[in-house]
Amino acid sequence: MKKLFLILAALLVSAAVFAQGITLSQNKPEIDAALKAYAAAWSKTNNVPVTIKSVGGGTGMDLDSQLKADLAAGDMPDIFAINGLENYKEWADLVLDLSGERWVKNTSVAFKYEGKVYGYPVAVEGWGMAYNADILKKAGVDPKTLVNYAGYKAAFAKIDAQKAALGLKSVVSMAASLDMGWVTAHHNFNSLLSNGLPYGDLSVVNALLAGKVDAKRLSEYADWVELIFKYADKAVLTTGNYDAQVGAFASGQAAFLHQGNWTDPNMAQAKATFLMAFAPHGSMARATDGIFAAAPSFYCVNKNSKNVPAAKKFLNDLVFTDAGNRYMVMDAGSIPAFSNIKLNPTGQLSKSVQAWAAAGKIYSWNQYYFSEDFRNKTLAPIYNQFATGAVTKAQFIDLMTKAFQGLAK
Predict the structure, then answer these.
(1) 3-state secondary structure at position 146
(2) Most buried of the four, 322, 337, 374, 394, by CB within 10 Å?
């Protein structure tokens, strides 16, 4: 009788823990609707309320700042996203060691630090320059020429001359407002850091962190930024949000889009049926033959949470249940980071990322070796000033140089 009582008591305690519910804070607003729908279904199945909070992507607040506010208010989520080493270091005291979790053996891109696993990879993502293949064909531009600055300069000029006939408002859809600093000071910035380098090569990163600037590489990169800004719709470039930027491409009003495969759900919603794929960035004079691909962010479990068992189950169910797999691949349009998941995304841009990755033609994501504050508060305003015309290219180079030199102090 006593043994039965203990078993029932244990079950009641377990049920009480799970019934409290969990909160997940993440930084990908483009999957907000799909994630909330999955969380609602998971909640019903498991009798555990789940609250999804999506922050970033032009919402006016970055996730790191929101988490700091949550911490101050004593309201930290049970699961939260980080995007790399510097971000991990900020939250290391709150991050649970997940090395023993079942999903760890099924992925090669988990976030690890000093031999332990702390982050669950949300997906595999990639970006280059997305292009409308139908428009390029009509304009007489071969995507195979889009491998360096000269190739893009010629292509942009050729398309721009036919803009009216092609029904375009701009050649490129690019956003560089302060709220969209993640496009400039995160993604575009990575062209400077890793384009043309072997995967995992941190030579440029380490030099810049030490305040040493390769003037030639930075100058070529500035040419690339200038070229994109020149052929972008000025309203979208300077004040446009995510929807405005992605919408221009999805509706056929721009031939190129500076975003990644996470926009596949947006393309589906807009019923964009034209052929699209990725070409390499043209941030160098020499040709490069790859796009940027990696895990974009990682879910961490708050080790001080009262709901650790439920949080762990939520993550495991994403990997090991049909519903979790379908959400990840079919609803969120993600490339799964786990080897046991056999579903493939249907989005054209995700398929393009997979093709580049399968060919071994990918470059690292190295932007997250720089702090969130440096990217958002130091670099993003410099890009914004360049986009609005407040500074010249020479001044852009000077401001970037001084920003890197300041890291060594």
Answers:
(1) coil
(2) 337
Give the C-alpha separation, 324 to 340, whole Å. 12
Question: Measured on CA atoms in the order 194, 196, 201, 203, is the torsion positive or negative?
Answer: negative
Q: Which residue's entry shows tokens 């049909």? A: 322
Give per-residue pLDDT as tens, 205-259.
Answer: 999 999 999 999 999 999 999 999 999 999 999 999 999 999 999 999 999 999 9
- Read off the pTM: 0.84
Q: How many Å is the maximal CA-CA distance in the chain?
A: 86
Using only the alpha carbons of the chain, give its radius of gyration.
22
The answer, yes or no, to whether residue 38 has pLDDT greater than 70, is yes
- Across the beta sheet with 22-26, the strand order is 50-54, 22-26, 79-82, 298-301, 116-121, 111-113
Domains and CATH numbers, the chain: 18-124+295-339 (3.40.190.10), 126-294+361-407 (3.40.190.10)
Residues in the chain: 409
Encoded tokens for 9: 């008591």
Phi and psi, residue 396, nearest 5°: -60, -45
For the beta carbon of residue 166, count every other beta carbon within 10 angstroms.
19
